[in-house]
């Protein structure tokens, strides 16, 4: 649905100086998925997101959305295409002197829809985001979460195929963040809208995304399914993000144990998370095990678990257990 090919962005910062914000970005977002881009401040996330609808025109490369090469469209054709690419912002960007209803109707008026079609569409959108009772309020009378709901309704007004989310929950408290993320998931599921979001919070990625790309200094340093990247991060930047949401791992207590050897980390995915796979495997040997740390959580809707255990048995038994766990599809790494 979104194809970014060899995207470069160079900002001219002075007569003779320039800054490279994006370097050779290649990214493909499939139809119907929620794709997250994560990175530290200054990594280039906003520049990348704004390249998708050409709010920021790349200095090199090709942007394709829904089969159309945006980088080759005329200004008029681009305006038309942008109607099918919704966008929401960290600070909502609402019209402060217009009511909730007028804010949502705004893109429909721009699209020159007749009044008789605007009213039912706005009613539908108000209902979708749960703001029917607030339709005559002004933005200053709303909470942050409600303002973002207006932003979402407005972005969906023209029935887009893609929704771009620019740090959409960064200005919200954790509870409101959860409710906005749930709304985005519902919109994606019910309407099949492809969502591309940028964030600096791994929690956001874990809650809603199918796949993720990690950015650093204008490059994508790692990408893959959220589960893969989360459970086996390769790049140091990724590892830092992952440690933010899994602070239980790698604690000093575990490090102290490490000296004794035979410690393993086991990753469970999906239905396996709830099965006694470890117990059943160890039971078939003379070995035993001690659980040192464990967690069960969810990555979007997929359950996953991570256990750190010390296997107590002979070298041969320990090798056999690790091999058998692997054969059953568990990821096992010696610590
Ligand atoms: N108009 C501009 N002129 C010059 N440099 C710019 C311009 N816009 C962005 N930059 C620089 O490009 C880099 C990437 O900025 P960008 O806003 O895309 O990063 P980001 O990852 O979204 O970070 P943040 O979350 O802080 O916005 C930064 O170093 C920024 O200073």
Question: What does the model show?
Answer:
The protein has 335 residues and is α/β, with parallel strands linked by helices. It has two domains: 2-244, Rossmann fold (3-Layer(aba) Sandwich), CATH 3.40.50.300; 252-334, ACT domain (Alpha-Beta Plaits). It contains twelve helices and 14 strands. The strands form three sheets. Strands 6-7-8-3-9-10 form a six-stranded mixed sheet, sandwiched between helices. A hairpin with a 2-residue loop joins β4 (60-65) and β5 (68-69). The protein is elongated, with a radius of gyration of 24 Å. Pfam families: ABC_tran, NIL. InterPro entries: AAA+_ATPase, ABC_transporter-like_ATP-bd, ABC_transporter-like_CS, ACT-like_dom_sf, MetN_ABC, MetN_ABC_transporter-like, NIL_domain, P-loop_NTPase. Keywords: Amino-acid transport, ATP-binding, Cell membrane, Membrane, Nucleotide-binding, Translocase, Transport.
